[in-house]
From TrEMBL:
Record: active site: H45, E77, H199
Pathway given in the UniProt record: Cofactor biosynthesis; pyridoxine 5'-phosphate biosynthesis; pyridoxine 5'-phosphate from D-erythrose 4-phosphate: step 5/5
Cited NCBIfam families: pdxJ, PRK05265.1-4
Chain positions recorded as 1-deoxy-D-xylulose 5-phosphate binding sites: R47, H52, T107
Protein name: Pyridoxine 5'-phosphate synthase
Gene: pdxJ
């Protein structure tokens, strides 16, 4: 069995829990199941309105991993606002993914536009690295993006795979979008960056991506994983996604 690439995003678990003033489904409980089943770690995106993940979830997950799963990783995803950076400083996740989201966005749906002012982003990267947190930047599938990320001091990029995932019923278009993802991954590798990928990845569309870019080190999966877990359960879905990645 090879090391896992799978980081399970549990935002949807928190969203379901928040429909009631009750503690279930448990974000930490299901995260523990995922990690016990072989997931590399857990990803969460705490938004300012706490419509799914709450700040308390972040602290609880950080404590869970520190105490019970010290070989696993917590990744915090978010816009580098002062409040978010304070959370990163306090929780000290293994990795932070900076995304250019407006607070009202439903989900991360585009990467950083590096031709705009990135001074605030550069300051956030410096701060996170001072806290010994690995920094990843969310990038569109654009081979020119990784060089900008490297210049800013990031250690990894996460390629936005939404356009590729949206082609589930159009094989020809999927091939074109896959080419963009792979070209971006190769450009990042050539810049010395670690390569992550995430958004709308499934057990069906992961194998072609891994075949062409086997050096991808992490895949953050939430929506597709949760949809799978409703049928197969959390533990079996971890195994299904890891099989799709060629790990078991």
């Amino acid at each position: 069995m090879t090391a896992s690439r799978l980081s399970v995003n549990v935002n949807a678990v928190a969203m379901l829990r928040n429909r009631r003033d009750l503690p279930w489904p448990s974000v930490t409980g299901l995260s523990a199941i995922a990690m016990e089943a072989g997931a590399k770690g857990i990803t969460v995106h705490p938004r300012p309105d706490e419509r799914h993940i709450r700040k308390t979830d972040v602290y609880d997950l950080a404590e869970l991993i520190e105490e019970r799963y010290p070989n696993k990783e917590l990744c915090l995803e978010g816009y580098p606002s002062a409040d978010f950076l304070k959370l990163v400083e306090e929780a000290r996740p293994e990795q932070v993914l900076f995304v250019p989201d407006d607070p009202e966005q439903q989900t991360s749906d585009h990467g950083w536009q590096f031709d705009r002012d990135t001074s605030a982003l550069a300051a956030a990267i410096t701060a996170a690295k001072n806290w010994a947190v690995t920094v990843s930047l969310f990038c569109d599938p654009d081979p020119s993006a990784p060089e900008h990320a490297a210049r800013l001091g990031a250690e990894r990029i996460e390629i936005y795979t939404g356009p590729y995932g949206a082609c589930y019923d159009d094989p020809d278009r999927a091939e074109k979008e896959l080419n963009k993802v792979v070209a971006t991954a190769e450009a990042a590798r050539d810049c010395g960056l670690g390569v992550n990928a995430g958004h709308d990845l499934t057990v069906a569309n992961i194998p072609p991506l891994i075949k062409r870019a086997p050096f991808i080190r992490e895949m953050s999966i939430g929506h597709g994983f949760t949809a799978d877990a409703l049928i197969y359960g959390f533990a079996e879905s971890v195994r299904r996604f890891r099989r799709a990645m060629g790990e078991i």
